[in-house]
Design a protein that fits this description.
Blueprint (H helix, E strand, L loop, with lengths): L1 E6 L5 H14 L4 E5 L12 E2 L2 E2 L9 H10 L4 E5 L7 H4 L4 E6 L2 H9 L11 H12 L9 E5 L6 H6 L5
Parallel strand pairs: 1-5, 1-6, 2-5, 6-7
Antiparallel strand pairs: 3-4
GO molecular function: kinase activity
InterPro entries: P-loop_NTPase
Keywords: Kinase, Transferase
């Protein structure tokens, strides 16, 4: 089973992936999480926007390596999460379940303002992230294939897990 989780930065993708892994572990299943951020190309090869590395485009991801790592995994459940999780059709086709977390621009802004994971970003960069999300980070293909959930409240794991037991 391969689950894809997408949404804008700070929507709760990593948190949901960890919660799912914990749930499946408690139910005797192994889980591997593939975080898109772990597949970013070296900083030196990232294009710049206003002198700042532009991490917010699909071309920054090593898609071949991510795909190979997913295929090599022997885990029962594989969770792929990231802003561009639904961008390449080749990856979308691998998913048995597609979960998209939506948050408002206001919630994104509030959460982004408290984000301390990366080096300090210029004030304009959050707007750049939002625009990139609108351009590259949306659902692709048949919208009916997605479970669209709010990332502004706690996600009901049972709702997601029930979508994994349909076979």
């Amino acid at each position: 089973m391969i689950i894809g989780i997408g949404g804008v930065s700070r929507a709760g993708k990593s948190t949901l992936a960890a919660r799912l892994a914990d749930f499946f572990k408690r139910n005797g299943q192994t889980t591997d999480i593939f975080c898109q951020d772990e597949y970013v190309k070296p900083k030196i090869s990232i294009p710049k926007v206003q002198g700042v590395p532009d991490w917010e485009r699909p071309s920054t991801i090593k898609w071949d390596k991510l795909t190979k790592d997913i295929e090599k995994s022997t885990a029962d459940i594989k969770v792929v999460e990231g802003l561009f999780s639904f961008y390449p059709a080749s990856l979308r086709k691998m998913y048995d379940l597609k979960v998209f977390l939506e948050i408002s621009k206001e919630t994104f802004q509030q959460r982004k303002n408290t984000d301390q994971r990366w080096e300090e970003e210029p004030d304009w960069y959050a707007e750049h992230v939002w625009r990139s999300y609108l351009k590259y980070g949306q659902t692709k293909g048949d919208k009916g294939e997605y479970m669209i959930l709010s990332g502004e409240s706690e996600v009901d794991l049972l709702k997601i897990v029930s979508g994994t037991t349909s076979d």
